[in-house]
Amino acid sequence: MSWSGVTARQIARAVRRGDADAAAVVDQHLQPIEENPHLAGALTHMRTIDALAEAATVDDLPDLSSLPLAGVPVVVCEQIGITGLAPRLGSHSSVLPIHEVDHEAVQRLRGAGAIIIGTGRSSELALWPTTEDGRHLLRNPWRSDRGVGGPSGGTALAVAGAAVPIGVGLDGPGTAGGVRTSAAACGLFGFSPEHEPATADMEATRWLGGMVGILATTVDDVKLGYAALSRRHARPSAELGRLRVAASNAQVLPLPTTVDHEATQALLNTVRLLTDAGHDTARANPKFGPRLAGASSGAWTAAAYLRAERAQSDRLQRRTRRLVALGERTFLRGYFGGVLGDGARVRQHLEDWFADHDYDILMTPGMPSPPPAAQAWSREGLRANLRHTAAAAAFTAPFALSGLPALVVPVGTRGDGLPATVQLVAPPGGTDRLFDLAAQLWAQLRPRRYSTAIKWK
């Protein structure tokens, strides 16, 4: 049996039952990557020998019943540390020592039985909503003239290209919308867990890094990955009562873009489907308060400055050096405390808006228009990147800042052949409701999990 394109849930069940060997499953996922230059370029490091050895170790365990991800191949973003690998941080300027311990997320994935087969290419310092480094140009599997989003574009391409069923990346205020931006570009589920709101005494890198997010082709696999990372059991989808769902395509950041007809139509079609399913839907724009733009740009530039301390600044990309200079002013002039305060106010405004109107879910487009073209944006300056690529994170970045649970959901295909997606956002504590609504949409729409360009043996 071929295991390529099989869901993580199905793989784990087969390995636990003894119907499949983890080593055989992993080997079948490694081979297509080695044979396909587009998939190979998505990864910065292949752990072929180590992954096969770790899979054999899983096979030798006497009892696999407690391993929810038994034998499941996973790619993690290169921003996440793995023992024995030097942190590249999406940059040729990184000169950091080899990791001596795994990132906590990697430890938890291994503890759940997952096999880390490689690291996904990311944008420099996880700052940009496009993924290429001047040497490797990643192309969207749905349309090759478009890119894969960012910063976790390589990880997203590995999932969208059926190299692995689950990918793991970062999603937070300083990550250009995190995994959800790449999910929207590649037609995947992309989940950002709820993370704690900003406080005045919070350590800067902790807030800016956000949380570890999940990429997958089914909502069940997202839930399985999240359960492993949060050390809890994946809850089965529950029957939904009548929800109050607000829908909005309003742009809340001052970016040079418009929401195109296809993105608006995908949102409207999903609203109609939810209405027909018995939910109470309304057009309503979320309230972020007056500080969103300043907090968002402040977090972005501050993240650039802090992460650049771990790199050789003269070897950074031109656009990154300019962003670092802006972030340096934020810190040296003592403005970052204001950024934290504004981030906390943005979240409070959103929480109040959900509570005042009794909304259960907010729904927006996943991306306002097609993802940026597949070209060498890393060789362009900051102004060109702001003009042509920043809009990709127009809907994902604001909710990375707020820390509310958010999930990008594929809902079909656009007329131009690219995936159509929406983003679901819940108030604090609404993660289960988010998953349940996504499962309902998936069951009714059944969008393609993979592009027709993906060839199966």
UniProtKB/TrEMBL annotation:
One Pfam entry name: Amidase
Listed InterPro entries: Amidase, Amidase_dom, AS_sf
Domain Amidase positions: 26-430
Domain of life: Bacteria
GO molecular function: catalytic activity
Family, as annotated: Belongs to the amidase family.
The protein's name: Amidase domain-containing protein
